[in-house]
């Protein structure tokens, strides 16, 4: 690293941080500019700091405040809204070395951990104690639990098990002034004072830096059974998903793939999708009566004009069915490779009331036509949460412009259908103008007031969430 | 009512409220001074206003602000912390006439309603549409959904189904300045901006007045099976409850009754408690494999040295088992009648980590001895949430003093055991000094800052939650 001599920020940081915690090499700074969102603006950090203790985090925030330097907390940078993008001259506060699991408490079904723990590592560790941490964002093998909390991450199984926010009992946060604040509790229930825990969940590092979390756990999930149904159209698949919900089923996954996604996964060789139709539904159950549930849900698919229904009643067939969903991103990657140009995938995230799902899928198909773009939509049908993925040539200025316009059109469609601009990815820099369209003016003002209350100097992840 | 002539508050209110919405009769004012908490200070309201529209609520808040008059929102006044108690000269804003169910949406499994709807009415209405609103606070047949939301109410089934807060998707709130704010959403998922919905849930009317709620619903609950186990001590019963949780069961009720409660319910004639021991556990399951679950949990009770275990595998026996829990308050009422003096019941509410439950029960038994009081404890063992009920003669000054001291000792014990001063009843006026002991100074400061942000003049339910 560059010696801190002559740079007051580095010199001040070095007073309480070891040299190996401070990164200033060009490649390191470049590497920490962006998360996984395309289109998103990012500045160049002054330094990447990797603290290992709460005291070190406090020191960073005190120094930043004293010098008026912005601080951008980062986890694994798998976010899809630019929420972890650097701003010019900032301290990137990379939490990845604070990755200890502090306690797994079987009697109280909870875990205490630091924010840098990889979600899959956390899940594996608690599984080793006979417990389960259900939230499963797509990036769960690389993303951090701190990032999950900061973005309010979701996943496939939330249709039954809820989102990250539902598991956060308590947090320790370092505030903008370097003070440590403990919010929430270690008990299952508690209503002592205003709920500050939920205020920090999903706040994307703009209100404080999460340095520890207490998370609720569940008993292990029973084995899943699943079905895959092909439909002529997303409308039929949406009707089947609606019937499943209306009939009172609580599937552990209820995923919809549109025509483009179905074709891409079929092209990658998934046996159940050969010759499939215009949409696919993948439904799983881990209920104690999963076999009966899956059969009943298969019948509802048939009643909703499914072209074919494959029911997987053993582990192997079940894995095959669920693989169709897991193959979506690799399949779109293969499609991108086959297209001319420097293709980039842009994963969108909108949520609508469950019964408007098919409307949104159809609207996205129209948008693909209007903007002459390849868009493949997959989504959590049980939650009304869709992810249209736009593939575009980032070297083609017209394609980039059209992709951005299509992105805006998709969000507008989500709002028109009574939905929200983000179901689980967050606002970041990408959607802050859209947040102002979704929220009423008074709500937006209150959001700003809360930001000002907790970060009066505006140094915590500036420009994220709120414009 | 008294004509408003000469009273600027009444005159201003009458400008946009019909005469029948304004109550000033002495009996009416007296009736609206207190909720169901004993020991709690209360003032005398200037007027009881019963709005029927959002516009009327806005008018009340605008008038109150212009004249500097405090506003105390009330539901059914079943609260147990004095959170709805009047303050001198206030407007009591009784929301009971805003009691319409606006929409039950089967496709999206949600309901929109006004705050004055009785919880049981809401549950019945959605059940009529084949859906379920699970939260079941003890007062559910009389309390209002607005009060449930404002206090963050719990209940018996939250060990499996969660608390009121978990069902609130969105709220419409009238702020202190009379502006209407819509927070949250109609979608299952959503992370657009800071979570302001949870900020209002449990805020006890101190941040705004809830005028509409969008609540998530579930499929109907399957029929329950249950068991009742008698133990020599609360420690043994607590060990059985711990084993049930540790073995990965998710019961739909897991209730513990201490010696005094067990004896009281036995004395009222419950057949399964005749000759029972020092503690009782009531466990229910509504899982699809409920019969197997209940048998397995019964075996865990036997392994934990249960003196007897009654497994109810049909509806009638199940009702009998669950009746033991429902009989607790009538049984304590009967005990109170049998004691000399003007007996009053004081229901406490503390929550501790699940594995400290037996410690808390034992500590409460010690406290009963130390203060020479009758205390019967019943609680949600699966949540670590206990309700010690203190019976004392309100005409006996020494007994009143001892009851208050015992109350403080119980809260201190809860905090010592790593718990919280309130699991589901709220802070109100009763526990605001204790809130300051539970929260760290910085947390308390932030709570006050948020209060000031939303209610700069301090007119919304003043003196509640925060001292």
**Classification by helices and strands of chain A:** alpha+beta
Query: Quaternary arrangement of the chains shown?
Result: homodimer
| E-strand count of chain A | 17
Uncertain segments of chain A: none
**In the CATH scheme, what's the topology name of the largest domain in chain A?**
Uridine Diphospho-n-acetylenolpyruvylglucosamine Reductase, domain 3
Distinct helical segment count of chain A: 16
Polypeptide structure, described:
- Two copies of one chain form a homodimer.
- With 467 residues, chain A is of the alpha+beta class.
- The first copy, chain A, has four domains: 8-94, Uridine Diphospho-n-acetylenolpyruvylglucosamine Reductase, domain 2; 101-216, Uridine Diphospho-n-acetylenolpyruvylglucosamine Reductase, domain 3, CATH 3.30.465.10; 225-329, Alpha-Beta Plaits, CATH 3.30.70; 339-453, Alpha-Beta Plaits, CATH 3.30.70.2740.
- Helix content of chain A is 35%, strand content 19%.
- Chain A contains 16 helices and 17 strands.
- In chain A, strands 10, 11, 12, 13, 14, 15, 16 and 17 form an eight-stranded antiparallel β-sheet that branches. In chain A, strands 5-6-9-7-8 form a five-stranded antiparallel β-sheet.
- In chain A, a hairpin with a 4-residue loop joins strand 16 and strand 17 (385-393).
- At the A-B interface, strand 8, helix 8 and helix 16 of A face strand 8, helix 8 and helix 16 of B.
- Chains A, B: This is FAD-binding protein.
């Amino acid at each position: 690293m560059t010696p801190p001599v002559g740079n007051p920020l580095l010199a001040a940081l070095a007073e309480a941080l070891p040299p190996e915690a401070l990164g200033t090499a060009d490649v390191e700074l470049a590497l920490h500019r962006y998360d996984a969102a395309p289109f998103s603006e990012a500045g160049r950090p002054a330094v990447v700091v990797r603290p290992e203790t709460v005291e070190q985090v406090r020191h960073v925030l005190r120094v930043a405040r004293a010098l008026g330097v912005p601080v951008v907390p980062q986890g694994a940078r798998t976010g899809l809204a630019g929420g972890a993008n650097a701003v010019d001259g900032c301290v990137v506060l990379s939490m990845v070395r604070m990755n200890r699991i502090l306690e797994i408490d079987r009697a109280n079904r909870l875990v205490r951990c630091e924010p840098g723990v990889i979600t899959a590592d956390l899940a594996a560790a608690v599984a080793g104690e006979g417990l389960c941490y259900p939230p499963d964002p797509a990036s769960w093998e690389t993303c951090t639990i701190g990032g999950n909390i900061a973005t309010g991450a979701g996943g496939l199984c939330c249709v039954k098990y809820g989102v990250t926010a539902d598991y956060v009992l308590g947090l320790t946060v370092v505030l903008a002034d370097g003070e440590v604040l403990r919010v929430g509790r270690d008990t299952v229930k508690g209503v002592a004072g205003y709920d500050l825990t939920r205020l920090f969940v999903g706040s994307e590092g703009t209100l404080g830096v999460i340095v520890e979390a207490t998370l609720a756990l569940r008993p292990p999930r029973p084995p899943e059974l699943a079905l895959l149904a092909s439909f002529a159209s997303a409308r039929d698949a949406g009707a089947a998903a609606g019937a499943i919900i209306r009939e009172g089923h609580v599937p552990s996954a209820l995923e919809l793939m549109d025509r483009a996604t179905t074709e891409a996964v079929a092209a990658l060789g998934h046996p159940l999708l050969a010759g499939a139709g215009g949409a696919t539904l993948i439904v799983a159950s881990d209920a104690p009566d999963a076999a009966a549930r899956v059969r009943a849900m298969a019948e509802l698919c048939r009643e909703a004009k499914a072209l074919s229904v494959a029911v997987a009643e053993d582990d192997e067939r079940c894995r095959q069915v669920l693989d169709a969903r897991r193959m979506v991103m690799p399949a779109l990657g293969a499609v991108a490779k086959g297209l001319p140009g420097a293709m980039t995938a842009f994963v969108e995230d909108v949520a609508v009331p469950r019964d408007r799902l098919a409307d949104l899928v159809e609207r996205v198909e129209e948008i693909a036509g209007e903007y002459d773009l390849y868009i493949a939509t997959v989504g959590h049908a049980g939650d009304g949460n869709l992810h249209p993925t736009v593939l575009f040539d980032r070297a083609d200025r017209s394609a980039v412009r059209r992709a951005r316009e299509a992105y805006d059109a998709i969000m507008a469609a989500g709002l028109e259908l009574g939905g929200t601009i983000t179901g689980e990815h967050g606002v970041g820099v990408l959607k802050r103008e859209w947040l102002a369209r979704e929220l009423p003016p008074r709500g937006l003002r209150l959001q700003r007031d809360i930001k000002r209350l907790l970060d009066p100097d505006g140094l915590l992840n500036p420009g994220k969430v709120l414009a």
